[in-house]
Amino acid sequence: MKMKLAIAGTGYVGLVTGVTLSDVGHTVTCFDVDEQKIQILKQGTSPIFEPGLEEMIRKNTEEGRLSFTTKPKIAYEEAECIFIAVGTPEGQNGSANLQYVERAAIAIAKHAKNNPVVVIKSTVPVGTNEKIEKILYEYSGHHLNVVSNPEFLREGSAIVDTFSGDRIVIGASDKAAGDRVEAIYKPLKLPIVRTDIRSAEMIKYASNAFLATKISFINEIAILCEKTGANIIDVAKGMGMDKRIGEQFLRAGIGFGGSCFPKDTNALQKLALDYDYQFKILSSVTEVNHEQKKHLFHKAKQYFQDLNGKKVAILGLSFKPNTDDIREAPSLDLIQELLLEGAEITVYDPIAMENVKKIYGDRLQYASSVSECIEDKEIAFIVTEWKDIRDTSFATYRKLMREPMIIDGRNCYSLEEAAKEHVNYISIGRKPVFFKKFQ
Ligand SMILES: NC(=O)C1=CN([C@@H]2O[C@H](COP(=O)(O)OP(=O)(O)OC[C@H]3O[C@@H](n4cnc5c(N)ncnc54)[C@H](O)[C@@H]3O)[C@@H](O)[C@H]2O)C=CC1
Ligand SMILES: O=C(O)[C@H]1O[C@H](OP(=O)(O)OP(=O)(O)OC[C@H]2O[C@@H](n3ccc(=O)[nH]c3=O)[C@H](O)[C@@H]2O)[C@H](O)[C@@H](O)[C@@H]1O
């Protein structure tokens, strides 16, 4: 059944939801309060870097199923279902800031005329959907059903994640409203989990918190590997082959970043405190992650002591490959520490450089390729495992750097390769390989 849908918010989640649902045949109008964003979208350009997204925006706009507007009336008036996908950034004391969700609900209440189901896709604390139902009633004077439908896509693989996700969660108190949302997703042919509203809200936070826990856990095992002489790659492989553990999210590195894991782990801890409970595991997960983001810097200090005036290269700035998002990116922590030490920093990222320039301006130098970034440097830090960074051979480092000291936060190379290629190579959870003797 094809439906008339509206989306509030054209960030990652709103845009990908709008584009994919129009691609399976629904008519979708995306509304955003950001006029500049809507202008860009109307021209068929994506305001975010996401593989495959721009092509799909153009295709579905041209075929007449997808449109963009800054006028809430146009988006909401006739919609049968309205998805709220606005931001829920970290607010006071770590709690989720719900002001954007509330404003979106008020606009929906004022303009919707077709008795729509209101679907909350934004990540919101348990109990929020019920609050929004009340706001909708207060501002419209009649009852509108609210359904919780949290999102599980990842930046950088958002389209693939939407078309081949593991599950779609639908939390509803009204069966018919839940059925309507289920019907929208039917063409995707994905497993559907139906729950009550509060459980759906909790599934989202619990999933993100569990994945974040896996990362902090493997990062602590990596520290122990470094101390004991074990190899984290082999350890993670051996653990991950146990289906009860699973191989995913066992890549040790320099801590998790991004717009969601840090804020969602904090919001869940805050929610627990609101219910008079201290979520002990999660406070350790956050603490471990905080420390892990400084790991590369500490390694550099360990081998060089004084970094003042050192010429360093930072390869990769986004919080993960295939996105220009630098929110909570570990690169920012490293830059900050190195600036305080007085290092001379050159950075490179295939996509995210402009975002970093907005923060650091001329305090950094910006290179347009890996080679330009590492040329004549004393230390190269690998921070984000973009393909062109992973594909750079040790021979290139040897040719361009004074005396290659590579500190790799993403374990991009094998230790055998490093030993064979005569570079100094320090990675995560593995023995360092030294060509030149460091004290
Ligand atoms: N970024 C991600 O990969 C994922 C995000 N989420 C959750 O989805 C939600 C949205 O996240 P993002 O898409 O990253 O947010 P974002 O911050 O990139 O975009 C939010 C958009 O909403 C717009 N907006 C604000 N108030 C509005 C209003 N009243 N009406 C219409 N538009 C409005 C903003 O202008 C902005 O374009 C958050 O709750 C987030 O935790 C969930 C899964 C994945
Ligand atoms: O709620 C959200 O916003 C989303 O948060 C994450 O998605 P995302 O933040 O886009 O990216 P991930 O691939 O999960 O990576 C997050 C961080 O963890 C790090 N990571 C990931 C995996 C791993 O094994 N090791 C590791 O250090 C990444 O480098 C990155 O900094 C979740 O994976 C999505 O399911 C969820 O929808």
Automatic annotation (TrEMBL):
UniProt keyword annotations, A-Z: NAD, Oxidoreductase
Q: Which Gene3D superfamilies match?
A: Cytochrome c1, transmembrane anchor, C-terminal, NAD(P)-binding Rossmann-like Domain
Q: Which reaction does it catalyse?
A: UDP-alpha-D-glucose + 2 NAD(+) + H2O = UDP-alpha-D-glucuronate + 2 NADH + 3 H(+)
Presence of keyword NAD: yes
**Pathway(s) per entry:** Nucleotide-sugar biosynthesis; UDP-alpha-D-glucuronate biosynthesis; UDP-alpha-D-glucuronate from UDP-alpha-D-glucose: step 1/1
Give the E.C. number(s): 1.1.1.22
Database matches in Pfam families: UDPG_MGDP_dh, UDPG_MGDP_dh_C, UDPG_MGDP_dh_N
Q: Where is the active site?
A: C260 (nucleophile)
Positions bound to NAD(+) = D32, K37, T88, T123, E155, K263, R327
Question: What terms describe the molecular function in GO for this protein?
Answer: NAD binding; UDP-glucose 6-dehydrogenase activity
Residue intervals of the UDP-glucose/GDP-mannose dehydrogenase C-terminal domain: 313-415
GO BP: polysaccharide biosynthetic process
Q: Give binding positions for substrate.
A: F152, L153, R154, E155, K204, F249, L250, R251, A252, G253, G257, K320
Which NCBIfam families does the entry mention? NDP-sugDHase (TIGR03026)
What family does the entry list?
Answer: Belongs to the UDP-glucose/GDP-mannose dehydrogenase family.
- UniProt-recorded name of the protein: UDP-glucose 6-dehydrogenase
* Source organism: Oikeobacillus pervagus
